[in-house]
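RECORD TYPE: inverse folding
INPUT: structure tokens
STRUCTURE:
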């Protein structure tokens, strides 16, 4: 091994960079001088399978003909959840197969010297895809992308092509998340009656939730890029990268990692050139290997927005331009990846970003909007992130599933910190098959989000039945897997169990707990909150000696409902409930390794029907229409006070100065709210 190689392997080990040699990349489709992209979003044809004959579409091969020729169809926007688009209760509550189709054109020039792909950003839960009647893909897992390479022999540039998608939202004990079909035998039920039961607290929206793209690459192309960043002691930034290519010329090169520094130019004459450009397009570093590192002196670091004085430094992103070139130095393929340079570190007491302790002040959220359900909508996602910045929050958790790549682009760019959670909500059972599903989804998530600066932590589950003995080995395995995939970020789990009985949190780098004092226990008694929370957190920290985040606390609040003195469900109650928590958090952050507080929830969201939910979960500080409840103003004061105290971030002019808040000792300083 040469010295350079030794140095590099040391670096790779230190930074935990992992080469995904066995799996195909899932780079977001983009246009470049060598790639083309076509959106298939729009209004598609749609039909649900009959409840009493769920397999009819397969038996009658609905994928072989236009959907409108095999029965009645309705119009369905893509992306969106199908549930709230029509006036039909049957469609809203449908469980089982639902069918979509549309036609599309392939440009003539795509038919030679190119590879053509079809990519779905997310379809909940199980999807089967046909093009011109031929199956091209199948994927399970509702919130992660998948891609199919299309065979040109099955496409036409002379006439329209047909895309058919069958999706199924049925969950079982080995899906993530889990669910079960309830088929009562009692004669009072109508024939064929069944329901899908699940014990997570959000509506099981179904549909093609995220954009659908057709795109091309050249026949030799950049398949995957893995980047990790690091700061050396002298302040020089290192960008460590691994580029995987697929070569057309010889099977030998198919899906091989190009260990570029051994032969810089491979036998097929192709080589990799990397350049890092700042926001103005200046080249700040270059590389000529498939695996390597770029050193960037005086790098502009990626910072959460409230940790920098100037807005333009928040979420600073460089562009890594990767090109695969031929012997004549002409670009065969080019891919541009936005990356932020930042350094994460953690130990038993702290978590730092670029050397500064980071205190998470944020939210649990949902991808949930009126009418669209979980379907991505640019209007809503920009509005949400404006509101997040307005509150002074610096972070959120993608509770309880991976959010769309379009959302993650925003958090990277705005400098909002993300705890990236997989869809394992409320899981139980912990058998081998479940572990396999869980592992597969974790791999896909890390593969998708590994290069994102805003993602600072992986969350491998929310509120599993982690008091059960089987949960111990199950999560021990999963933590080990995620660390093997990525050593550059801490791994957490969000638990709701007691510190004495939990079997999973001990494996986490940072522990997250959810607590609902005065809501699910001692309902209405806000006077128990502060002492209970303080004692509880002390117990966890004294036992596990880890940084800890309160990942959820909250109270259902119906906007416009008032009561003095305060009473559950009123805006006054939510205010009081928050104030009592703030006292606890301030006492804890002064004396313990509490490193964050995240309220449940950012906004009201839809749930299944139930007597504890008044048309959805109302714990939002914003309504589902994104209007503030009284609590939004109180939380905003606190978050801005913290941003000012911890990061020196200027307090907005429209907030009273100094902000009414509690001192770190938990005493009221200006309690005017
Ligand atoms: C929780 C869950 C979250 C629920 C929340 C609630 O602990 O993690 O999914 O929505 O409680 O409001 O009950």
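DESIGNED SEQUENCE:
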């Amino acid at each position: 091994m040469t010295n350079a190689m030794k140095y590099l392997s040391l670096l790779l080990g230190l930074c935990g960079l992992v080469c995904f040699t066995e799996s195909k990349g899932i780079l977001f489709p983009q246009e470049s001088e060598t790639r083309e992209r076509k959106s298939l979003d729009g209004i598609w044809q749609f039909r649900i399978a009959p409840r009493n004959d769920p397999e009819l579409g397969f038996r009658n091969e609905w994928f072989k003909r236009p959907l409108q020729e095999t029965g009645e169809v309705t119009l369905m926007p893509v992306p969106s959840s199908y549930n709230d688009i029509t006036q039909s209760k049957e469609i809203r509550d449908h469980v089982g197969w639902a069918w979509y189709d549309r036609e599309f054109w392939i440009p003539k020039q795509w038919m030679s010297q190119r590879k053509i792909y079809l990519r779905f950003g997310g379809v909940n839960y199980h999807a089967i895809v046909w093009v011109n009647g031929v199956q091209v893909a199948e994927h399970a897992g509702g919130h992660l992308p998948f891609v199919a390479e299309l065979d040109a022999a099955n496409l036409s540039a002379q006439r329209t092509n047909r895309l058919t998608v069958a999706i199924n939202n049925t969950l079982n004990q080995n899906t993530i998340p889990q669910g079960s079909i309830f088929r009562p035998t009692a004669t009072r039920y109508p024939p064929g009656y069944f329901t899908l039961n699940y014990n997570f607290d959000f509506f099981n929206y179904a549909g093609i939730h995220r954009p659908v793209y057709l795109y091309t690459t050249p026949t030799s192309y950049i398949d995957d890029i893995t980047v990790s960043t690091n700061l050396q002691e002298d302040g020089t930034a290192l960008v460590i990268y691994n580029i995987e290519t697929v070569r057309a010329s010889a099977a030998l090169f198919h899906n091989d990692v190009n260990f570029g520094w051994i032969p810089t130019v491979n036998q097929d004459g192709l080589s990799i050139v990397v350049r890092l450009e700042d926001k103005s397009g200046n080249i700040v570093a270059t590389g000529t290997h498939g695996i390597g590192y770029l050193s960037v002196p005086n790098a502009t670091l990626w910072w959460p927005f409230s940790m920098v004085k100037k807005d333009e430094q928040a979420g600073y992103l460089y562009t890594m331009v990767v090109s695969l070139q031929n012997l004549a130095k002409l670009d065969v393929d080019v891919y541009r990846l936005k990356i932020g340079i930042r350094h994460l570190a953690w130990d038993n007491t702290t978590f730092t970003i670029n050397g500064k302790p980071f205190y998470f002040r944020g939210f649990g959220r949902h991808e949930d909007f009126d009418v669209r359900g979980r379907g991505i909508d640019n209007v809503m996602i920009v509005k949400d992130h404006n509101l997040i910045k307005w509150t002074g929050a610096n972070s959120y958790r993608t509770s309880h599933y991976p959010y769309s790549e379009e959302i993650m682009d925003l958090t990277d760019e705005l400098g909002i910190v993300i705890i990236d959670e997989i869809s394992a909500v409320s899981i139980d059972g912990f058998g081998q098959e479940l572990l396999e599903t869980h592992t597969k989804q974790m791999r896909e998530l890390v593969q998708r989000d590994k290069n994102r600066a805003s993602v600072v932590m992986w969350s491998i589950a929310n509120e599993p039945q982690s008091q059960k003995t089987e949960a111990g080995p199950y999560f021990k395995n999963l933590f080990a897997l995620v660390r093997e995939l990525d050593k550059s970020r801490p791994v957490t789990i969000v638990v709701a169990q007691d510190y004495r009985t939990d079997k999973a949190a001990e494996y986490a780098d940072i522990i997250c707990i959810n607590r609902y004092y005065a809501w699910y226990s001692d309902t209405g008694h806000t006077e128990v909150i502060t002492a209970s929370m303080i004692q509880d957190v002390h117990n966890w920290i004294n036992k596990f000696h880890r940084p800890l985040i309160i990942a959820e606390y909250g109270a259902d609040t119906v906007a416009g409902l008032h009561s003095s003195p305060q009473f559950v469900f009123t805006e006054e109650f939510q205010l009081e409930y928050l104030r009592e928590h703030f006292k606890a958090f301030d006492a804890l952050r002064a004396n313990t390794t509490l490193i964050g507080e995240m309220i449940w929830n950012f906004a009201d969201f839809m749930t299944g029907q139930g007597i504890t939910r008044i048309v959805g979960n109302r714990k939002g500080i914003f309504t589902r229409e994104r209007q503030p409840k009284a609590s939004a103003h109180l939380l905003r004061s606190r978050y801005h006070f913290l941003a000012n105290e911890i990061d020196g971030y200027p307090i907005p002019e429209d907030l009273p100065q100094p902000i009414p808040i509690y001192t770190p000792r938990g005493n009221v300083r200006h309690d005017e709210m």
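NOTES: The mean pLDDT is 92.
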